[in-house]
Design brief:
Length: 238
């Protein structure tokens, strides 16, 4: 466990405790062991880093023998360990450490996040396939599936960028992945990696074109001087 994580956990355990309450069974922690953990943490907050089994027994209502048994099981299951730490007074003291439990807890949280991310990626990938098939009006070939997978996995194109390239291709009536690939490569060369960046660049080019047209317009007024032509009313003529 790195120093940053250790300091975070020691600073306060409200968030960790809440997550632990929802996942302690998955870590192999029993109800009684969870109660023992909570009591030890409570005593730690009061400066007692190695509460006696007698105190734990009194707090939990379990016999001392049962407390010994559970503490031993927690050590065997690598949920807890007893460390000998040298204090400022030069003396060494034993204390309970739950760093292994926290490591398992963090690993469990990381696995959960990864699983959710994979599921989200799967849904997003399937959505991209469905969008292209819908716009092309036909099923994709195996080679086309492979091409799109490479865009997502190897080239790391965001799904929304692929959707935008699809929109550009449809507007140009070019229903092919090759055309979409040229669009995506063009954006990549110009370091445009988000839909917002592409839209901003298009607006910039559009405004630049308008300014260019304005600059080509004549800046001087037309010469309206010349011979004056008399105007007569028809009623004035004989």
């Amino acid at each position: 466990m790195d120093e940053l994580t250790r300091r975070f956990l020691k600073a306060g355990n409200t968030v960790v405790s809440n997550y632990l309450l929802s996942n302690f069974h998955q870590l192999g922690l029993t109800n009684d062991e969870l109660v023992i953990y909570l009591i030890i943490e409570k005593q730690r907050g009061q400066g007692d880093l190695f509460p006696s089994s007698k105190l734990i027994s009194k707090e939990t209502g379990l016999t001392e023998n049962k407390v010994y048994e559970l503490l031993h099981e927690m050590i065997q299951n690598k949920l807890m360990e007893i460390k000998t730490v040298k204090h400022a007074d030069g003396k060494s003291y034993d204390q309970y450490s739950f760093e292994r439990l926290f490591e398992k807890l963090l690993q469990s949280a990381s696995n959960e996040v990864q699983a959710q991310k994979q599921e989200t990626n799967k849904v997003t990938r399937e959505t991209v396939f469905a969008q292209i098939e819908s716009e092309f009006g036909r099923p994709l070939s195996p080679i086309e599936y492979e091409t799109i997978n490479q865009w997502l996995t190897d080239d790391h194109y965001a799904p929304e960028m692929i959707s935008l390239a699809l929109k550009e291709a449809v507007l140009s009536q070019a229903y092919s992945l090759r055309y979409m690939d040229r669009i995506l490569l063009n954006w990549e060369k110009r370091n445009l990696t988000t839909v917002k960046q592409v839209q901003k660049e298009e607006n910039r080019q559009r405004n630049g074109s308008i300014n260019s047209l304005d600059s080509n317009r004549p800046t001087t007024k037309a010469d309206l001087t010349g011979p004056k032509i008399p105007i007569y009313k028809i009623s004035d003529q004989d």
